[in-house]
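Working notes for the structural subgroup meeting. M.R. asked for a predicted model of this chain before we commit to crystallization trials. I am recording the input and output together here so anyone reviewing the notebook later can reproduce the run.

Input as submitted:
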Amino acid sequence: MTRYADIPKPIRSGIVVVDPERGTPQRIIVLQFNPDTLERSLAPQSAGSGGDSGGGGSGSGDRNEALRLKGPAQETWKFTAEIDATDQLEVAAPDGIHPELATLEMLVHPTTAQLREASRLSKKGTIEISPIEMPLTLFTWGSKRVMPVRLTELSINESAFDVNLNPIRASLSIGMKVLSVSDLPAGHRGADLYMAHLAQKERLARAARSGGLGSLGLAGGNAVTGRS
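Returned structure, recorded in token form:
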């Protein structure tokens, strides 16, 4: 007889905010429900894709760059997450899901302290004020997908409220850009984490079964080698 204790506890996806200097987690956001679907897009950074021979030249430069890459592919993720306070009726929630929503929203907002400091420098006459740097953000989808990201989209649809108009149910559309070594400076902890993420992809690719030329109708191999 199967006992409930024998059933593996599902792993949750989530977001980890990390101190880029020390590497210690500052905040861990565990998604209440894992999204049902993930939309992933990879755009190769081809070396020859940006140039244009103009139609009058030979275009030899583009042909020489046809199989070259400038860097890692630009990867984006999109998914929908659900937050529902009614799933936690035994836990007092006087603010509804305001805290959970605010935690996610602060991933795209600077803090009041950072804004005050920028204002102070501006009033002091500082000629150049650097843009406010946000903490390093990681998205985790199991142990095989841990990557540095930047939120590019956060759309919130609140669909139920308590008597005090606190939201108690919401659907969130979240878009993220995976930050690679092309986006982060050398030596940045996020760049190291991206390299680990890419190395994991390489290990998984090596574990895939290789097909045979016969399955493609190319048993002789001449079509692949270019020999007649």
